[in-house]
Specification:
Shape: rod-shaped
Distance between the termini: 141 Å
Largest sheet: none
Order of helices and strands: HHHH
Number of strands: 0
Helix content: over 70%
Number of domains: 1
Number of helices: 4
Structural class: mainly alpha
């Protein structure tokens, strides 16, 4: 244990810093501070003048895309309504034609029955 304490005492001995160490540390700290000031913050760049333009451009793109999708949906809805109207008209015409055919068949049936009764 005595050897361990001696090694620890030598490792923790005060040593003078090399010449120019303080100047290098201060210069590096100043350089990092300068880089920190010139490096843009993400939120500041997003909402700064340049970032605000990009955000507005993105919002405009989303608005145009949404408007296009709504317009296409409206066009499809109108086409569907037109097709429904055409189908309803076709069904009405078919119904009236079937009614005419049924009337004709009944008339023929009654005429045939009258001829059979004679």
């Amino acid at each position: 244990m005595n050897n361990f304490e001696e090694n620890l005492r030598r490792a923790l001995e005060r040593v003078e810093a090399p010449s120019g160490f303080v100047e290098r540390v201060l210069a590096r700290a100043a350089q990092e501070e300068k880089q920190k000031q010139t490096r843009p913050n993400f939120w500041a760049s997003l909402f700064g003048m340049g970032g605000l333009r990009w955000a507005a451009a993105c919002a405009l793109c989303v608005l145009v895309a949404a408007s296009g999708a709504l317009y296409e949906h409206d066009v499809q809805r109108r086409r569907g309504e037109a097709a429904k109207e055409q189908l309803m008209l076709a069904l009405r015409i078919t119904g009236s034609k079937l009614q005419i055919a049924e009337t004709s068949v009944r008339q023929l049936d009654t005429t045939a029955r009258k001829n059979d009764d004679r």
